[in-house]
Amino acid sequence: MSNTVSASPNARFTKAQRLLTPSSFREVFDAPERKLHQSHLMAFVRTNTHDQPRIGMAITKRKVPTAVARNLIKRHIREQFRVKAIYLQNKDIVFIVKKSTKDLSNKDLIIEINNIFKKIEIR
């Protein structure tokens, strides 16, 4: 028997956990309850009326010029959200990139993402 620790077996990232429409992004951007800052990332947080947390990402070409780098950031955010979604309340969370992540390692990026999720879990 293996001694590895994994996420809940049903921890999935479903379509219902995504912010899909421009109006849902606009609601979070226009009236966020909290803005959480890290050196490279920022998250806007707002309570939603759904029974689960939802996430969106607005990662621009200006801050992260290559598609490979943008997709990597999105993949890391989605994975950390998938694992931590059971600990989050019904919040809408939108991540943006404040400054280029070119000099940031994957490990440091994951640490910044986790720091934001820890701040959301506390309150």
Keywords:
globular; alpha+beta; 3 helices; 123 residues; four-stranded mixed β-sheet; 4 strands
Description:
With 123 residues, this protein is an alpha+beta fold. The protein is 36% helix and 19% strand. The chain has helices spanning 22-30, 67-84, 106-122, and strands spanning 34-37, 41-47, 54-58, 91-97. A four-stranded mixed beta sheet has the order 1-2-4-3, sandwiched between helices.
Mean pLDDT: 89
Overall helicity: 25-40%
Number of helices: 3
List unreliable stretches of 5+ residues: 1-6
- Total number of strands: 4
**What is Rg?**
14 Å
Sketch the major β-sheet.
4 strands, mixed
Order of helices and strands: HEEEHEH
Q: How would you sum up the global shape? A: globular
Please give the alpha-carbon distance between the first and last residues.
37 Å
Amount of beta strand: 15-25%
> Structural class from helices and strands?
alpha+beta
Strand order of the largest sheet: 1-2-4-3
Give a short overview:
With 123 residues, the chain is an alpha+beta fold. The chain is built from three helices and four strands; from the N terminus they run H-E-E-E-H-E-H. It is 36% helix and 19% strand.
Topology of helices and strands:
Blueprint: H1 22-30, E1 34-37, E2 41-47, E3 54-58, H2 67-84, E4 91-97, H3 106-122
Parallel strand pairs: 3-4
Antiparallel strand pairs: 1-2, 2-4
Helix pairs in contact: 2-3
